[in-house]
Amino acid sequence: MKKILMAAALLLSVSAQANDQYVPVLECRGEGVSLAVLEGGITGLPMIQIKRSEDSVSTYESHLVRVQDTKGRIGAPTTYVGKKISLSINYTTAPNKDGSRTAVLITKGNPKKEVLACRRAR
């Protein structure tokens, strides 16, 4: 009986660990910025991870976000919104010549909008 309980506990821990994994769905690059939108995890909330490189110094940020409701507007951009971040990308417009999509990143603490080129992660 102990062996059965131990096996069940092991299976539960492995399945819980597998559900906590995030998968990249969108990858973006800009001037000194690279960004990944990840989905999955136990919470089900998307996460944005940002890497900024400036003068050989890299900083990393992670933000939990939600997808903002477009309220049925046709052609509205997909917007990921968090406490200190907003990322908007429009999939209904034509892609750039290189196949990427243009996104706009706004973060608290950075006064300017950053324009990024994004692709769906593979």
Would you write up a description of this structure?
The protein is mainly beta and 122 residues long. The chain has one domain. The chain is built from one helix and nine strands, in the order H-E-E-E-E-E-E-E-E-E. It has a nine-stranded antiparallel beta sheet with strand order 4-3-2-1-9-8-7-6-5, with no helix packed on it. Strand 3 and strand 4 form a beta hairpin. The chain is globular and about 65 Å long. The mean pLDDT is 84.
Please render the helix and strand layout as text:
Blueprint: H1 2-19, E1 22-30, E2 33-40, E3 47-54, E4 57-64, E5 66-67, E6 78-81, E7 85-89, E8 101-107, E9 114-120
Antiparallel strand pairs: 1-2, 1-9, 2-3, 3-4, 5-6, 6-7, 7-8, 8-9
Unreliable residue runs: none
Global shape: globular
Largest sheet: 9 strands, antiparallel
Number of strands: 9
Radius of gyration: 18 Å
Mean pLDDT: 84
- Proportion in helices: 10-25%
What is the ordering of alpha helices and beta strands?
A: HEEEEEEEEE
What is the helix tally? 1
Strand content: over 45%
Span from first to last CA? 44 Å
User: By helix and strand content, what is the structural category?
Assistant: mainly beta
Quick take:
With 122 residues, the chain is mainly beta. It has one helix at 2-19; strands spanning 22-30, 33-40, 47-54, 57-64, 66-67, 78-81, 85-89, 101-107, 114-120.
